[in-house]
Amino acid sequence: xxALVIHAPGxxxxxxxxxxxxxxxxxxxRVRCGxxxxxxxxxxxxxxxxxxxxxxxxxxxxxxxxxxEAVGEGVTAYAxxxxxxxxxxxxxxxxxxxxxGLQNHCLDMRYYGSAMRNPHVQGAFRQQIVxxxxxAHRLADHLTDQEGAMAEPLSVALHGINxxxxxxxxxxxxxxxxxxxxxxxxxxxxxxxxxxxxxxxGAHPLSKALKVGADEVVNIAEEPDGLARFAVDKGxxxxxxxxxxxxxxxxxxxxxxxxxxxxxxxxxxxxEMTLPINAIVAKEFDLxxxxxxxxxxxxxxxxxxxxxxxxxxxxxxxxxxxDSARAxxxxxxxxxxxxxxxxxx
Length: 345
Description:
Helix 4 (151-164) packs across helix 5 (179-190) and helix 4 (151-164) crosses helix 9 (296-305). It is built from ten helices and 18 strands. The chain has 345 residues and is an alpha/beta fold. Strands 3, 7, 8, 9, 10, 17 and 18 form a seven-stranded mixed β-sheet that branches. The protein has a six-stranded parallel β-sheet with strand order 13-12-11-14-15-16, sandwiched between helices. It folds into two domains: 2-150 and 311-343, Quinone Oxidoreductase, Chain A, domain 1 (Alpha-Beta Complex), CATH 3.90.180.10; 156-289, NAD(P)-binding Rossmann-like Domain (Rossmann fold, 3-Layer(aba) Sandwich), CATH 3.40.50.720.
């Protein structure tokens, strides 16, 4: 079968790739659809991010949905023909962090399409893949494959919501309205946020933010002081979801975040940030990181299956994996695209 293999920045090839043998407790899945993530773009454009670099050819992708072709010995919960979303998170289950319920910090994590390990963990942008049964989450008949592939980025946003704590009635600021920022808006609204303001430097992502639940938006490029009115009385927002990975966005939000406000850092720029520690101390902020997810994947699929969230406004296009150069170029163009998906049919 064929897969999308990255060799170097800009060098993404469709290549023959072997399918693993189906073992006990496993499923062989025909991949139908996969979403291009920010990390996939970093590998394609720059060869990696931060200290993580491609050292050998690697199949990209970790946001996929497909249909079960065959089940391994001992699998009774699934049957051929069923449609599933595939969780790319494969913790060992044995290390101390897994035993503490912190599987996203597993010491032996095998996460699809990741160059963090060497040899790299091959990704899921391929026509066929063998997965462990626990990675499978059944999709409702009414859900499209494209929506199913959105379960992974939605899981990241849900993990961010969990890191923030209770949001019922809270005033929330989201800086950066790419796919994760927009999904954070969806998740925060579902969690009961009372008022959500979103900022970005582009008109297109801000229009999508309004469609998925933001009460108001601010174009920082056009209104550099657009948040100034929220700075009165030491700040108005209870929680900040910083999804841009931009140091200026984070620093600018400090003035409008109330004392003892919670900062949830969702975005990564690939480099380091310099933070105003004096402001963090003086206003007693809580700064909380977000790294991947685990149990939130099942929640994401349940919310999608029950139509309790709608991710369709964020799906910009579905492009054949054989036309990957066009797909990745479109995914990088924030003026016209949010989430671009690849079809493997």
